[in-house]
Design brief:
The chain is mostly helical and about 80 residues long. The protein has helices at about 15-30, 45-50, 70-75. The chain is built from 3 helices and no strands. It is elongated and about 45 Å long.
Length: about 80
């Protein structure tokens, strides 16, 4: 998918979500401040909007081939 200069993490996978959380905790234990650029992309609603938009929504046109119904997305990303 897009952003070929950025790691693409599949947050639909529970193990990937957990690994991100654990890495955030790991960094937080070492530093007093953490900077998150584009942190909203980790939030469920933005992750769906950006990578798996609901069918028929404007979303990002290049991702319409990856659209998921809300119920399916909620099942995969609780």
């Amino acid at each position: 998918m897009p952003w070929n200069d950025t790691a693409q993490l599949n947050l639909l996978r529970a193990d990937v979500r957990e690994a991100v959380i654990q890495n955030i905790f790991h960094v937080a234990r070492k530093f007093s401040v953490i900077r998150f650029d584009a942190a909203m992309t980790l939030a469920k609603k933005h992750f769906q909007r950006l990578w798996y938009p609901m069918p028929g929504t404007s979303g990002v046109p290049s991702r319409q081939d990856h659209s998921l119904a809300r119920t399916e997305f909620d099942r995969m990303f609780p």
